[in-house]
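Long-time lurker. I teach an intro course on protein structure, and each term I like to show students one example going from raw sequence to a predicted 3D structure in token notation. This year I'd like something fresh instead of my usual example. Would anyone be willing to generate the tokens for the chain below so I can use it in lecture? Attribution to the forum is fine with me.
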Amino acid sequence: MKNCWQILGIEATTDIDAIRQAYLALLPSFHPETDPRGFRQLREAYENALQFTKSPAIEAVEDDLDTQWVNYLREVFRDLLADGERRFQPQAWQELIHNINKLSISQVEKARWWLCAIAMQTFPVSYSCLKLLSDRLAWEHGCDNRDVDAEEVEDLLLNIRRGDMFDYTQLLHLPVAIQNQTIVFCEELDSAFFVNPRYFAQLMAQHGPWVIPDGLHFHRRLLRWFSTLHLGVAELLPVALIWQKAEPDNATPGYYHLAQRVFCGEGDSLLPELCAQWREHPSTQLDALLLRWCRQHRPDYFPLLIMAVEAREQVDINGEPLLYIPGSSARTCMLWAEALHSGALSPLSESFIARRLNYGAPTMGEEHSQHPNWPLYQVADCLACAEEPSEALLQGMVAKLDAPDICPLDAVIIRGLLVQAAAVVVPCETVTADEAKATQPHTEESGGGFGLWQVIKIIFFIGVIGHVLSRFTH
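-- Reply from a regular --
Happy to contribute to a lecture. Here you go:
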């Protein structure tokens, strides 16, 4: 097989003008209509020669009896990388390795880093196929050639170890330009997902069609990408289910399955499973899913659910609960403000939030008492004001929690409010020794001692805590 220089009839050179002149001189002899094969070979030789000028590290080997096969091998490799039908086929690469096996040990050593340099300058390339060549030429054993950069070799080896994102042979039926565009686009998405999330979102928002290859691992990547952007794609739900069945002990596919169902707008049928998952595997990601679902389908519960979520998050670096006033965190106030301006809340919910964000606003009035969530909002309002909720309100919440047909969202909110009530009220009833001494004369004068009523309230709240803990354990 003739190499590009033999076809052009010139010596190997990096002079672009000389290459162009040789090509133009031969062009009339190979008309594309009368001699299409010759014209194609001439054109490929011209393009390979121009490519050679961009690769000064890959120099032609002087023709002698020992190196003719090496030059031939180099041209075969370049032809393979440029062939839109064979470059992603492992069988074609096995044929290249078969040709390498015909060389002597010294010839293979000469070709070893030339081929590596060509591979480093080629994109896109199938790294899964390139691994076959890397294993044969032992690139992993280190670079000892001054004509190639050791760091670039290591970057290439990292990509080879990572492999292809999907099976590139799925693209072979497409034009080469579409093949390259799809691979480049997917590679940029994968890189930007971890390095530059803002650029990743811009890439995903690009207009125009792009090919979605098949393959288990690539579909899982898509599931992760679209879930990160809070975009629902119904076609990805089976991907998450298959992943769950394959890895039942892995919580990640379960989260992505719930996330896609939320982002696709599933309604009440999702609520029991979502709440159960939130209780069993609490996390900030599930907090966000539950809040998003509630805001879409039960907006009047949203201000209360924020407080229930806040109760779980108020812990220190060691996981110990913090003493705080419910509804006082910056995140809660921000979410309340967003909900207030959404226009989807009832007058009761709006009044509650307005009071919490602006203490000059009027408090909730009896005109809202017919709302089904009125008792819950009364308890939440007391807690946010650092006041004791009445025992009747708390007992009503406990009774509702025991109801067999309780809504899962009601259960989450009631548990959260009861935990906050226990955390706020019980510390208020506990006095230090110094405080007890200071108040002792007053209590003696009143004849009440420590106070039976105080003891009853402490016992009641301890009972509430025990009840909530038993429900959580159940």
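Some talking points for your students: Confidence is low (pLDDT under 50) at residues 56-62, 427-453. Residues 70 and 111 are 6 Å apart (CA to CA).
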